[in-house]
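Narrative summary of target 7.
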Amino acid sequence: MDDIKLDRRYDWVGPPDKTSKIRPVRLRRVDNESSEEEAYRVARQDLSEWNSAFWKYHNELFDSKKAEFVAAKKQSLGRLGQLID
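Modeled conformation, tokenized:
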């Protein structure tokens, strides 16, 4: 969303990231924004980006560990594993 010119009157929410499942948010910048308001907006934006990175990492880790577990379980079941597919 960084390369798109957005209407500054609104906050913008994009579609969920495929891995993190977090929707990216671009907060509006109001005219005559005070330094406190700017700091708050920037902090919210940073937190949103941190949350997205956090969940992306943990969801990728979960998916890989789940795949390992399922593969090990199928291997341990032997012929019965063919019935589970």
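The longest helix spans residues 35-77.
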